[in-house]
Amino acid sequence: MDNPRQLALKSLVKTDTGSVFSNLEINTTLERAKLSPSDRGLYTALYLGVLEKKMSLDYVIEQYSNIPLSEIDVETLNILRLGIYQLYYMDKIPDYSATNESVSLANKRTKGFINAIIRSFIRDGKKINFPKEKHQRVSIEYSYPMEIIDLFINSYGEDTAYGLITKSVNDKTVSLRVNTLKAKPQDIVSVLTLREDNPQLIGDIVKTNLPIKDIKDLIDNGLVFVQDEASRICSMVVDAKPSDTVLDACACPGGKTFSMSIDMENKGEVIACDLHASKLSLISKGAKKLGIDIISAKEQNGKAYNGEYCEKFDKVLCDVPCSGLGIVFKKPDIKYKSIDNINNLPSVQYEILSNCAKYVKKGGILVYSTCTLNKAENENNVLKFLNENRDFIPLDFEIRNAKSQNGMYTFMPHIDGTDGFFVARMKRQNEKN
Q: What residue ranges in 197-307 does DSSP mark as E strands?
């Protein structure tokens, strides 16, 4: 059997060097590793936990290390992070186990250094004295870079910014979209209840506390697929009907494509596009598993005009690439992105939106969405588009608890209990104003 701590260390080093994304790394490791069910859970908890709390852990290490953080090699640093994380955040792991296991991961040269820091932390009562200044304390305690906190404050104000930051950790529930082509939502609830779960049913979304491994059979049989409630509402905003022609312009991995196709009762036509041909198999395989045959997966750059699509579609969804700041509790490495990379995104997103708008029939619907919380990527892009494309007008919607204003709605994790998400709906008029 493989060692879950050793695997977590390898994954952390890969992530720190920028060679992997956390969600893909977890999937790849769990597919290849030989681990018991409990060790699979330990690996995932350690890997994601250290990523989620990296700044907090580094803050502790800095206080005990006689070597600057920048001079500690990446493997040693992550061994220390793993050790401190187990001691402070995982109360079921004994101190001696966290210490011994951490030291065993180190090479001969660094064993003494790692042992000294970890034991000093234990000796001091495993306490973290967070900074007193509010801005700094929130940054260190919740492991958010200052520049991301500033971005949230500039977009939504201080109270909302701190609210969504404190909500962006520790939510381990899984949301499942029921495939109503094969099952009824209440039937899935009954199955999960028998598995000692207390699921919550919201329309055709079931929220469960069970880990993925315990519901894998439902996923493999195409009865459900993972989709957050905000993403589900986004696909409902498109309002795809049987016999519609629908374009999902940035479709992979395909959750919204599948949801719209099910809403269409597997009738009509859905074109699911992605820039990367290598990802299209995710849509084709997913559609087959779910029993959907109206989807065609095609390689297409959202920014590149395709004359064959001109005014072809009743509904077009532009779920554009974004900074992902609304889903950091699922992919914690996202929050450590360079702010420069984030600032470059709105122009790319606007190109995709402007181009794909040309594919909407007169009288058709255009939906723009992101899984981020950043007005520059969200409201600002939509308002600019509406100002420059007078044949489109905002179209309000009210779905479940989401009631739009000027055709737009932002899902806040601490208010809506969903991913952070933005949706805008617009209608193409027959003539420009």
A: 200-202, 205-208, 224-226, 245-248, 269-274, 295-299
pTM here is 0.93
d(CA 254, CA 369): 14
Which residues form the domain of 146?
134-167
Side-chain half-sphere of 386: how many Cα atoms within 13 Å? Answer: 19
pLDDT tens digits, one per residue of 80-133: 999 999 999 998 999 999 999 999 999 999 999 999 999 999 999 999 999 999
- Give the gyration radius of the chain's Cα atoms: 23
CATH code of the domain in which 93 resides: 1.10.940.10
Average pLDDT (60-64) is 97
Q: Are residues 159 and 192 in the same domain?
A: no
- Is 158 part of a structural domain of the chain? yes
Domain identity same for 222 and 238: no
Which H helix or E strand runs over 113? helix 108-123
Residue 37, pLDDT score: 87
- Ramachandran angles phi, psi of 400, nearest 5°: 55, -125
In 168-279, which residue ranges form alpha helices assigned H by DSSP? 185-194, 216-220, 229-238, 255-263
What is the Cβ-side half-sphere exposure of residue 130, based on CA atoms within 13 angstroms? Answer: 14
Are 150 and 178 found together in one domain? Answer: no
